[in-house]
Sequence to fold (216 residues):
Amino acid sequence: MQIFLDTAEIREIAPRADQIDGITTNPSLIARSGASMSERIGEIARTVPGPVSAEVIATDLEGMLDEGRRLHAIADNVIIKLPLTMAGLQAARVFGKEDIPTNVTLCFSLNQALMAARAGATFVSPFVGRVEDAGGDGIGLLKAIRDVYDQFGFETAILAASLRNQAHVEAAALAGCDAATVPVKIFDRMIRHSQTDSGLDAFMADWAAGGLDRSV
Ligand code: G3P
Fold:
């Protein structure tokens, strides 16, 4: 499963760039960064070679097409994030014909995921945490999408989003998602483990107590 970082902060991306497959952003994250959309997306696309999702602000088809083409012109690895609306699905079909990759986002149901795949989306982003916030089964949604995509041979990649903890990431992997996007806090927790830390401390202490030459 590919791991993307869900952030627009270069200070978070740069030190982890060699361990991630791509970046997802959204209008909230770009606004929080204080940078302009084009400036920040350009910086990110130069930092990470993998796909960088940049979301359109327009909600009408023509506006989405215009913004999406401008965003993709920033760099080849910029992919266009479109909301799962009628206009977003229409834009996904147009971008598909233009070989511009898309990430259809704000997906909360199996029907929506089905429509995104039918529109030829490159990625679909089901929002696990927000489904659970509303009392739904976010992980169940991922499994259902996987089943239906496999059953019909859809090639749209499932990008699990709105993941709120490490268990969500593990469940997304077990559900067969193609990718998961995580905030940096979860990314770091995927690597660290208290027993790794204490085990390493013990190895180092034993080595120091042995008084041996450090060279190998
Ligand atoms: O990738 C989507 C993500 O940014 C939404 O996460 O935690 O705001 O629901 P959250």
Summary: The domain at 2-209 is CATH 3.20.20.70 (TIM Barrel). The chain has a mean pLDDT of 97.
